[in-house]
Amino acid sequence: MAAKITYRRIYDDSTAQDGQRVLVDRVWPRGMKKEDAHLDEWLRDVAPSTALRKWYGHDPERFTEFRRRYLSELRDDDHQEAAGHLRELAAQDKLTLLTATKDVDHSQAAVLAEWLAKKKR
User: Fold this and answer.
1) Which residues pair with 23 in a beta bridge?
2) Beta bridge partners of residue 56, listed in sequence order
3) How far is CA 10 from the centre of its chain?
4) Origin, by domain of life (predicted)?
5) What is the pLDDT of residues 93-121, one digit of tens each?
6) Residue 33, exposed/middle/buried by CB under 10 A (0-12, 13-18, 19+)?
7) What is the DSSP string of 41-110?
């Protein structure tokens, strides 16, 4: 049975359907207390580089190029260990990727969910 990979905002309430909850942001979300996050892991090293994150600025018009650059970064040595660990988590039952981004469909969490789904095929 294939694992279910989803993504959503860390500010949303956790549910029993989340499975493993992994924060994929480089910086801790504003106003979120660690005890309220209900995280299994925080994989900041799988997040986009600071330079890429700042360039993107969550501008939906830049998303296609952001996605291309981020997927390229995931192949870099700086991301290999964290990306490999995330693939291991995705091979298990359920995985929810969390981000503080308001527009989750234009976030690194969305890119990672798609990337992980393709890696499993």
Assistant:
1) 42, 98
2) none
3) 11
4) Bacteria
5) 899 999 999 999 999 999 999 999 887 65
6) exposed
7) EE-GGGSPPHHHHHHHTT-GGGHHHHHHHHHHHHTSHHHHHHHHHHHHHHTSSEEEEEE--S-GGGSHHH
